[in-house]
Write a structure and sequence with these properties.
By secondary structure, this protein is an all-alpha fold. The chain has a single domain, classed as Four Helix Bundle (Hemerythrin (Met), subunit A), CATH 1.20.120. Helix content is 80%, strand content 0%.
Amino acid sequence: MLTQAISTKLQDPLNRLYRERVAQALARAFQSTPLTPNMVTVIHTMIGVLGAFLIYRESYLYAVLCFELRTILDCMDGILARLKNQSTATGRALDAIGDGISFNSLMIAGTLRLILDFKAYPNPMIVVGVMFFAFVSVHSGVVYQLMRRKLTSIAHKEVDIVETEWRDIYEQVKNSNPSLLVKFSYWIDSMTIKFVSEEWYLKVKKRKDLENWREKAIQEAEMMHELACRTRKVEFRRAVRAASFVSDDNVFSLMSICFVVFGVFHASFLPFVHPVLIAFSVGLAYSILSLSLGLHYYHNFLHGVYRE
């Protein structure tokens, strides 16, 4: 019914097509080895940085291969964490940082490439444009992860995964001397929940010190699930469909296509078009459009549920 294939539907199209299957096969192959999910995160971050360097060197085909491998390993670390029962808030924060490093390395490499190739343009103009793109795209990725976890919880009639993870980090921040990684994870989760829905954030915050918070959260989960199955079924399905396109992996995929079309084949196809400029422009336009639509349909469902 509602729960059928919900996790698959929330993935971006290329992950659904083949990346998730490859990542699952790799995770099962390394399940009994000393390889940890955090190691995989570090590896895919390094591969992402290598891909960015290759963009600067104008080796677009090899760069795209690096980005594709990075994305598959990015899927693999989460699957391996679940197989080994090693899912932690620290691991999620490390994964977010790794994604940020990979993406920002690409932004830096692309900026340097554009500055070298467009000397007639003022450098600050290029830098500001790329920084805006990086901000929008990285924020889209963070919002996507939160929306995916929330919608999955509703589909499976479970206590909100986002709230559970947020509370775990909150307890660490409140009762111990947390690391910078834990503090960063708490801050980014709090700000993202508030950005997506102020009403949702207030509900989570209001329950944070209650002893019976889980009982209240279960009641809310059951209510939201029933509404998603009945009166809010159309809104829920639209929210799921729109959320799958917010993933930052889609941005990487679109830019990779641009690098191949305009970088690898540029000698015989529109030689006056710069591959990095086209890739960044397409990525920015897609990020703004997908984030706007994703938040629109997500708000329609979530606010409709809270009103009922």
